[in-house]
Amino acid sequence: MLRLKTRPQFQAAMAGGIVSRTAHFALHRLLLADAPPPGPGSSEPQALFSLGGVWLGAMVPKRWARRAVTRNTIKRQIYAVGAGYEAQLAQAAHVVRLRTAFDRKQFVSATSEPLKLAVRTELQQLFSRAASAAPRASAP
Question: Could you give the number of structural domains in the chain?
């Protein structure tokens, strides 16, 4: 699984639209066949997604997860669960975006086991919904 790294990659993947959502997360997907060419100001002659395959990025805004340790924990969970679903996902660029905060009254600690379990469970629901609705690309 390849990771999204640049701002234009994230923007392009998010422009593809939401394919799955849960209470706290949204999954955006851009099929690689639909990927736009690089912008006019781009110094890169290559396309944004030069390699085929499954791309994944994680957006965890400070607005919804104030502590850096919580943001990093959520990102690690996104990448770990995403790697488990790599074979089931379409050949596309995916962005998992945290869209609302986890209740701080329920999850007092920044990296508690209950928080990790809640995040993992919700991410599994998110990816399983996306995998069941994923258009299958022909295998090489």
Answer: 1
> Domain holding 66: CATH number?
3.30.230.10
Each residue's pLDDT tens digit, 16-66: 899 999 999 999 999 886 555 555 554 332 467 777 788 999 999 999 999
In sequence order, what DSSP letters do the residues of 25-88 get, joined into one string? EEEEEEEGGGPPPPPTT----S-TT-S-S-EEEEE--TTT--SHHHHHHHHHHHHHHHHHTGGG
> How far is it, in rounded angstroms, from Cα 7 to Cα 82?
20
The confidence score (pLDDT) of residue 26 equals: 95
71 within some domain:
yes
Whose tokens are 């995040």? That residue is 119
Provide the pLDDT for residue 45.
27
Q: Which domain holds residue 99?
A: 2-33+49-132
